[in-house]
Amino acid sequence: MRWSALRFCRLAGLALAATLVGHGAVAQPAKEPVRIALIEGLSGPFANAGEAVFRNLLWAVERVNARGGVRLQDGAHPLELVRLDSKGNTEEALAMLRAALDRRIVFVAQGNSSATAAAIVAALDRHNEREPTRRALFLNYSAVDTALTNEKCSFWHFRFDAHADMRLAALTDALRDDASVKKVYLIGQDYSFGQQVLKQARAMIQAKRPDIEFVGDELHPMGRVKDFLPYAAKIRASGAQAVLTGNWGNDLTLLVKAVRDAGAPVKFYTFYANALGAPAAIGDAGVGSVLAVAEWVPNLGGAGSDDFYQAFRQRFPDPRDDYVHARMQSMIEMLARALERAGTVDAVAVARALEGAKLDSQPFGGFHTGTMRAADHQFQQPLVVSMMEKAGTSGVRFDVEGSGYGFRVVRRLAPSEVEQPTTCQMARP
């Protein structure tokens, strides 16, 4: 484990106290921090994605602490982010969860694997029932398997990303309107999320464009394929005009690079092609042909959005660290506000404060809002479909990761346009 974030947040608390003294306030002993355990693959094949999440959450924590932390009944407390490396393995993630619970950490964050998220939900359900005085909450920023807020929903789990069906609704609307696409190839990672994406993509496309032919539908091992050229050759041979995938991390980067190298002239409809090396890997072949869906993109426009993005880049100036998501900031902001409404770190009180909570525009300069739906704990927020273009062209002021390519907004959908019904039957304490 690495404890740099823990030490940083303690130093930040001391710096805050020193600032108050400097302004004539009476120095007070530092309050116990409110700890958030980040359980993520910080080593292994998806370490780049884990470290990118860490930077986002660290910055969000810093922003809350810079304004004084969170005010509970006994005064202001800083937030503290604790790194716990799951190595991209579900069993290791559960071990890290046990370690966090043993340290009486109440708030656990994870997202880069829906299979791992489902295991954490189940483990927390059991733990919270057995030990009601040591309950904890799970804050999910990117595990998007739809089941997690449907048949596998839990009072102890809150999701701040749009789930797979919400993202697919936005992507398949864009595909529906592209008359040039007649043949589609579906490919994804072989686990719960990847399976759900392919199943639902087929159903949504058939409903919206019954004329489209599916010329491929396959799953591949997650995180273990080093050479995607055989898959790229099949995509090229299929005659597909479009590929739809939920791949993320290196599985996405290697796939698009292989398809580019194979010379397959396809459009990519993706969840995550706008970051983590994918734009540079795609290169010129992606201009006007690679789409992604997210809750926000740097080229959304407007002073609030621009200020938000530029502040992140100032904090992390290395182009390789250029990975920022509004949903991760939303999660920490909404947690901070729920803590203050509850006045305590008690898991039940904070959960009830989160239910139905609205994120106003304050931390985002007016460009991002949302509501935590109480029925299933699924955050409802806008979604943006964007197209890869060269930086400097119309609508592309900012590039991604210094690649020279950015993403132009094609359409922005209001929460009501992507909201999906839920089958959640939640047991409440």
TrEMBL record:
Keywords: Signal. Residues 33-392 form the Leucine-binding protein domain. The keyword Signal applies. Pfam families: Peripla_BP_6 (PF13458). Residues 1-17 form the signal peptide. The keyword Signal applies. Belongs to the leucine-binding protein family. This is Branched-chain amino acid ABC transporter substrate-binding protein.
